[in-house]
Amino acid sequence: MIENLKKVQHIKTGKNMTCGQLIDQMNKSGVMGAGKIAKAADIMETMIRDKECKVFLGLAGAMVPGGQKQIIIDMLKDGWIDVFVTTGANLTHDLIEALGYNHYQGTHMINDDELNKKGIDRIYDAFMPNEVYEGLEKFCKKAFEKMPKEEMNIKEFLWLLGKEVPDENSILRICAEKKIPIFCPALSDSGIGLQVWSYMQEHKIKVSAFDDLKEIIDIVWTSDRNGVIYIGGGVPKNYVQQALQFSETAASYAVQITTDRPESGGSSGAELREGISWGKLDKKARYTNVTCDATIALPLISAALKERLEKEST
Amino acid sequence: MIENLKKVQHIKTGKNMTCGQLIDQMNKSGVMGAGKIAKAADIMETMIRDKECKVFLGLAGAMVPGGQKQIIIDMLKDGWIDVFVTTGANLTHDLIEALGYNHYQGTHMINDDELNKKGIDRIYDAFMPNEVYEGLEKFCKKAFEKMPKEEMNIKEFLWLLGKEVPDENSILRICAEKKIPIFCPALSDSGIGLQVWSYMQEHKIKVSAFDDLKEIIDIVWTSDRNGVIYIGGGVPKNYVQQALQFSETAASYAVQITTDRPESGGSSGAELREGISWGKLDKKARYTNVTCDATIALPLISAALKERLEKEST
Amino acid sequence: MIENLKKVQHIKTGKNMTCGQLIDQMNKSGVMGAGKIAKAADIMETMIRDKECKVFLGLAGAMVPGGQKQIIIDMLKDGWIDVFVTTGANLTHDLIEALGYNHYQGTHMINDDELNKKGIDRIYDAFMPNEVYEGLEKFCKKAFEKMPKEEMNIKEFLWLLGKEVPDENSILRICAEKKIPIFCPALSDSGIGLQVWSYMQEHKIKVSAFDDLKEIIDIVWTSDRNGVIYIGGGVPKNYVQQALQFSETAASYAVQITTDRPESGGSSGAELREGISWGKLDKKARYTNVTCDATIALPLISAALKERLEKEST
Amino acid sequence: MIENLKKVQHIKTGKNMTCGQLIDQMNKSGVMGAGKIAKAADIMETMIRDKECKVFLGLAGAMVPGGQKQIIIDMLKDGWIDVFVTTGANLTHDLIEALGYNHYQGTHMINDDELNKKGIDRIYDAFMPNEVYEGLEKFCKKAFEKMPKEEMNIKEFLWLLGKEVPDENSILRICAEKKIPIFCPALSDSGIGLQVWSYMQEHKIKVSAFDDLKEIIDIVWTSDRNGVIYIGGGVPKNYVQQALQFSETAASYAVQITTDRPESGGSSGAELREGISWGKLDKKARYTNVTCDATIALPLISAALKERLEKEST
Is B280 known to be catalytic? Predict the structure, then answer.
């Protein structure tokens, strides 16, 4: 039996090795975390190349403060992602940067009361000036005024908002421009959500939280194949999983990158395999659970995939 | 300096020791996980006893499939909790059980495809028959028909739904009966949410996802003191944190129980201390981060608190 | 199929509930972390009651600074443990306390350089005065002088050392008095180990690190059944696992309590099940992996087991 | 204050990007896991370039079954490492491969009893044929016969063993050939250790476990500066930390890569900062704790460092 298995070939690194070459080496070792990174790259490559596959990206965690914005933007721009599901926080931080603010390289070993006095908000070791909320309010008010008075779902609202974003290099703006469906079921749980509510107190604006369900379920139902990439779990993962559960096209490809654990039973840390029982994941699906900080795993995989996917294009 | 510190007194267990006595021993040891469990019990006791403190419970994770429903119900019934924020999943699983279904003791070492063929959905090592969704649909349709045609916020919707729940021993029903504000910003990301959407296709029902923000912020603003208990992070935690951020009454007491980690920057695993920079947590607040599976930590603390809090009542 | 499974009965806590009663409730819920705690208590009870079973305790991690010394002592005193394997660090901290020093309740949020200036060593949130090393040296020198000049194995050395310990309530002393085999393969990696080496520079003392292997393998070979309790992984776990591998009596019972993870392949976090492939664990063995901080799980289980095991004795 | 901080510049990946370029990008983002990987690469580069700095590598975990052997060999060969401390398991798996055996790419989702029947030992998702132990025994016997009858310390023993290793591309052989001090305090807790003990039953061979202490402490004392790289914690980390504690030259540079956590107080997961209190780490030291599966982090850093360090050499 063991003779039929591939040997663990030891990873050989070299000078000027590309990220793609490194992942090829990880593929040859094939075990533990490195093996999973390589498998994730393979599965993502396959689902992106598969023209009949809709690729869903469920993105949670502090990915914008964590320096991953450009990678997400590139994934959206390069056509890797067909449907984008994320948290209100990521969209808010993206918008804040598009308005000219920045996140800063801080430290978690600090007196938080001193930060508070200086008007600095901490996200682990990333700092953000609290004044961003003024800019956010000003921008939102103006943008909301241009919006129609009829009821929108969250996707439509975000597309309209995205069009007003002054910076071309923004997640929101790209989704709006490229008409990439963007779902954010817990938008009310974010800075943008607060602005919506605040504006609603005096103006007419109607955003429905339930109407997006139809759209995402429709996409799942009508596609030939589905592929999912979950980063950080949370509502974005669960929302895609739910759409898969209530359609007849279970996912054929799945990659999960998170440090959450399965034992306590929560959706964020649940192994992808569990989805087979629910009909969310096809029993023949290719999938892998990468247990890794996404700020490490995602850039590495992104670079390798650019290498692989752009090879033909030139 | 070291002379002024308390010694680590070793935990002494004994026959017929109560959970309260065990936590007293953990208090005397005072370090590592045991010390934090003891500190969490102390802080929770203080916030519950403090008549001028509003206690917020943010509950995420598979707490109903995980056997924690009764503990949550008791916390709500006994008046420990003033405001309840949770996921759609927990409310859905609670409702499912109230309709007469059960979760079962399974295993995670199983062929998920076989489970799928047998109509069993897996949540780590808990199993649930897939047929629950039929009962859920039937119940929801009937309950929704009785609802007003005017726009409700999610809290109002859940209270109305709770009144229809046939089992007295249900989280939803208790909140409805005791008029405990219940917030669920990502309700659309759940079985109940799907029923709302499905019903909306042919009937008139309006549930606003943004209007709850006013209520939770009002509660935070008007209370003299706020205390928070976060189990499992996710949207429930973030939603309370957001309300604290945009009020002037930062939390005076805070307890967090999760196995999520701070390093990747996400809200779920963020240390409570971080909230001080944002103005979510008072710089003089008493707080502790318990890194533990909540299905272990919560029952132990619950039992100890019943012992402490009911002492006087008799 | 699902009808044959036990229902998840929700944990009901009550006033003055004993730890044993709480674990009975966890047994009825039967899933996630709580279910594993209950299963661990059951398996430990069974292996302790089984007169023909040798119980091995492999103990790593900062259990003495972490306030768990008395629980270990009670396990040894009450006859629960037949063979004890641990790290040099735990024995050194035990000895330090037996010499009259203490560990203190500190904090991990502190300037470590200030601690250093004050002569305080930090172990997460436990503090220890650095002066303990003077007392340790003085005691060891005296104790070593009484030792035979012939070669001893580590177990014999530790028994001789244990006899000199001035405090009756010490792990080392109990093992010596009760003739409980105590193995510490990496003794040289500890304060006591350093004292051995230091003494060796000028005096004759011979401690063999390999000779203990015969003893532990003999114990495994000659017992009818073996049960293992691993806390914290490390060398203590691996050393017992190795003895099981090279005997013909694989373990019939196994409990592991650790927060280490399996994915990176290390022995500490490896699931017990893996041991079946190696012949370390019997394929019919009862076993469970508790993913929990041992300073929380062990006291709870200890209290419950005292309740169960002492019931009959009175 | 915030103006003086560096901005989080978003990681930009590109086609044919080298691993070094990726880490440069991570350096510009500077936060969360990616920031720590970049910092680790910088610190390791500095300590390797610093001619007056002795670099200690403490290596635990299943690094050979995990496909990392070549990376370790290159680190030793290229002169990056002055002192090597590891587990008996890593040396045993290295030796096993040098004898012509292999590890294989398996899976952790398997029936371990079936593996056992097929003579396959599982290390998470790596498989090893159990027959390796026959080859190991044969080789060891022969090698031990050539050894002197006088007492050796473990380092001397391993150097002698390394000379007999038939494969040039072996950790043991390289250390022997390059006279890199190799410490393995818990050697008895391994396959090689078992062979030593087994051979001792009928032949004369003397290996002292305490005598190595003098050597490692001497190295620490006599070097101008010390740098440490800890992978996976365990005895290898603790042994170097101990040598640093009892010398006057605390480490000036420190990098730790592990998924172990600090909260339960064990040495493996302890933050490096803690070492400042003990005098193991200099208060002005540069250090970082990378929370990541080493099979992912190490190859990436290795490739980047080859790029940086070999730039000048050509």
Answer: yes
